[in-house]
């Protein structure tokens, strides 16, 4: 039913690249071909190669380079009067904006990309852009608004036999079920996604599906060792492909699994590792989630109650500013877990944002860098 997974973002002279190509290799090849296209005065090819360069930088966590690259790709596509290539560049920019926590900008860019994809007759970039819009809403916790779009995109991907897109849609829907407490449904969908990804040789999709399975196995079944084994398998794929973001989320999930098992010192170590990784790639959502896990672990290890309260207050403000509804619910659950009320940290020195776990760059800087 499904063919081998392909990477439509690798275009022009880079179509031979695999969906499983190391991102370092993609960056090397893409940069070389981009320079050759620029020297030859071929803006269409420069746009295509620039897209691959932008995506490699983004997935490697090199956000400033990614920002420059997608904009350069868009300019080259506009010079070539290639509407579909313009759409692909905007899709890359919108995906980067979401990764950096600028959700309003992400929606604007992805909507423009979907519109241009339709005008340019490129059904794939239109589908990827709509998927980006759906994922943006899902990450923010707007499940009712995007569940139907996820289902629509899943049906379209199944109909066309697009393994990679089917896996993405299954994982997104599964995540919403998991967050809503529907663990059996979530498990079945993550399991199907893992099977399709494995058969289609989509190592990235397979790694994300394994992460989802590990989460459900941990929270539903309490099977810590199986969850850790799944994460270890997923981590191997992340390292082979240089997937910095996926690897950081893998480490954060390993922290979750260890925390649930009562291994709080081990969880603290993994959360701290993930936090450093997210900060390196300027990923505010992952950073906030790692901070939350770290705060909970430290609280279990005897941290002063007022310090924990101040940390949770600061996290709630950060998440509100970013616009992450589900994550704010997680902060509320943490307060309930430790018997801490909102505002209990007021008056503590860390309540003013001086705490050692806080990121050195705020959301305004993050969003401004994208623009």
Compile the SSE list and pairings.
Blueprint: H1 23-39, H2 43-59, H3 63-79, H4 83-99, H5 103-119, H6 123-140, H7 143-160, H8 163-179, H9 183-199, H10 203-221, H11 224-240, H12 244-260, H13 264-280, H14 284-300, H15 305-322, H16 325-338, H17 363-370
Helix pairs in contact: 1-2, 2-3, 2-4, 3-4, 4-5, 4-6, 5-6, 6-7, 6-8, 7-8, 8-9, 8-10, 9-10, 10-11, 10-12, 11-12, 12-13, 12-14, 13-14, 14-15, 14-16, 15-16
Give a brief rundown of this model:
76% of the residues lie in helices and 0% in strands. The chain has 371 residues and is mainly α.
| Mean pLDDT value | 91
What is the gyration radius calculated from CA atoms?
21 Å
Largest sheet: none
Fraction in beta strands? under 5%
SSE succession:
HHHHHHHHHHHHHHHHH
Q: Tell me the number of helical segments per DSSP (H or I, 4 or more residues long).
A: 17
Number of strands: 0
**Sheet/helix structural class:** mainly alpha
Shape: globular
């Amino acid at each position: 039913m499904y063919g081998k997974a392909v990477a439509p973002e690798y275009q022009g002279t880079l179509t031979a690249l695999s969906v499983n190509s190391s991102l370092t290799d993609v960056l090397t090849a893409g940069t070389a071909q981009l320079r050759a296209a620029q020297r030859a005065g071929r803006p269409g090819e420069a746009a295509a190669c620039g897209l691959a360069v932008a995506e490699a930088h983004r997935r490697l966590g090199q956000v400033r380079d990614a920002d420059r690259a997608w904009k350069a790709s868009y300019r080259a596509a506009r010079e070539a009067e290639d509407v579909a290539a313009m759409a692909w560049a905007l899709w890359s920019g919108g995906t980067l904006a979401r990764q950096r926590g600028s959700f309003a900008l992400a929606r604007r860019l992805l909507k423009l990309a979907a519109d241009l994809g339709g005008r340019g007759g490129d059904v794939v970039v239109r589908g990827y852009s709509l998927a980006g819009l759906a994922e943006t809403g899902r990450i923010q916790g707007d499940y009712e608004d995007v569940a139907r779009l996820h289902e629509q995109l899943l049906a379209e991907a199944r109909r066309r036999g697009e393994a990679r897109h089917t896996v993405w849609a299954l994982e997104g829907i599964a995540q919403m079920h998991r967050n809503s407490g529907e663990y059996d449904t979530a498990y079945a969908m993550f399991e199907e996604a893992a099977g399709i990804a494995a058969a289609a040789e989509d190592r990235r999709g397979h790694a994300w599906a394994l992460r989802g399975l590990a989460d459900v196995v941990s929270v539903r079944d309490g099977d810590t060792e199986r969850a850790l084994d799944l994460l270890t398998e997923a981590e191997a794929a992340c390292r082979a492909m240089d997937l910095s973001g996926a690897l950081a989320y893998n480490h954060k999930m390993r922290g979750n699994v260890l925390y649930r098992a009562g291994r709080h010192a081990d969880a603290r170590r993994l959360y701290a590792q993930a936090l450093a990784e997210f900060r390196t790639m300027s990923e505010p959502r992952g950073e906030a989630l790692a901070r939350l896990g770290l705060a909970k672990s430290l609280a279990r290890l005897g941290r002063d109650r007022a310090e924990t309260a101040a940390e949770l207050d600061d996290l709630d403000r950060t998440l509100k500013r970013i616009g992450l509804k589900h994550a704010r619910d997680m902060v509320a659950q943490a307060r309930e877990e430790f018997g801490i009320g909102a505002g209990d940290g007021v008056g503590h020195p860390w309540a003013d944002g001086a705490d050692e776990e806080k990121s050195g760059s705020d959301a305004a800087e993050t969003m401004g860098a994208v623009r």
